[in-house]
Design brief:
Blueprint: H1 2-11, E1 32-40, E2 43-57, E3 60-71, H2 73-79, E4 82-90, E5 96-105, E6 108-117, E7 124-129, E8 133-138, H3 146-156, E9 165-172, E10 175-191, E11 194-203, E12 217-222, E13 229-236, E14 239-250
Antiparallel strand pairs: 1-2, 1-14, 2-3, 3-4, 4-5, 5-6, 6-7, 7-8, 9-10, 10-11, 11-12, 12-13, 13-14
Length: 253
């Protein structure tokens, strides 16, 4: 179950764009590091860190997002997960240029680079994957990390309607995966980082071996201009798992 939860953490920031281009310079977190702890009751199972900075590659100025997911404590002895995801993003459009996935889970290893071409075709985006080769996907699709910041700009910083439902595609593990997310309500939550008023969203989950309801997941986004994920909550057959924000650092790390 721990592996499944850690994968879901990535899907929270994996809501791919619709086909419309972004009309102005991409709104971005600069020189920011977020740290989350994941636990089942009083048991600490994992840590997630996300950092953001600007870099130069091939004479181009890009945004760089770096995410690391790892197990801790007894879960690390059992599963030994240390996954790293990176995204390089065009500063003017907000679309990804390159995405890296570096997986270390027990004895399993997988390293893959995906590059994106959003201009070669007018009706679609063409990617080059180290594992899948050339693949044609929906126009202006985002990778697993850059997609959240498009959603932040388009949805999470404006007042939601009670009937807001977001339909999106994600591209992850070499496939396009549709996600539906609905707005639930507003709620104040207290985590180690502090008490924050949040907007609550519910991605649709697949009922079956892991989840018992379609609305078994909750995403808490701060109800302010920062729109930072504060808490992720999962209801399983065996109980509730939470991933809470514990640290926010600004400036170069």
């Amino acid at each position: 179950m721990i592996k499944y939860i850690l994968k879901i953490l990535l899907f929270i920031v994996s809501v791919s764009a619709f086909s419309q281009p972004i009309a102005h310079k991409f709104d971005y977190y600069k020189d920011l590091k977020l740290t989350y702890t994941m636990g089942y009751g009083f048991i600490k199972g994992g840590l997630v860190t996300i950092s953001f900075k600007d870099v130069s590659r091939n004479d181009s100025s890009l945004h760089h997002i770096y995410l690391k997911v790892r197990t801790v404590g007894v879960f690390d002895q059992l599963y030994r997960i240390k996954d790293i995801y990176e995204s390089y993003i065009d500063k003017e459009t907000g679309y990804p240029v390159k995405a890296i996935r570096n997986i270390r889970e027990g004895g399993y290893r997988r390293y893959n680079i995906v590059t994106y071409d959003h201009h070669i075709r007018t009706d679609s985006t063409v990617i080059q994957s180290g594992y899948s080769g050339e693949v044609v996907i929906p126009k202006n699709t985002f990778d697993i990390l850059s997609s959240y910041y498009y959603m932040r700009h388009r949805y999470f910083t404006t007042p939601p309607n009670t009937d807001t439902i977001i339909y999106v595609d994600t591209y992850f593990t070499d496939e396009v995966f549709p996600i539906t997310m609905s707005y639930v309500n507003k709620k104040t939550v207290k985590v180690k980082y502090g008490k924050r008023r949040c907007r609550v969203y519910s991605p649709v989950t697949e009922v079956g071996r892991v989840f018992k309801r379609e609305d078994a997941m909750r995403v808490y986004i701060s109800d302010d201009d920062e729109a930072i994920p504060i808490r992720l909550e999962f209801e399983f057959f065996l109980g509730t798992v939470r991933c809470d924000l514990i640290s926010v650092k600004y400036g170069k790390n």
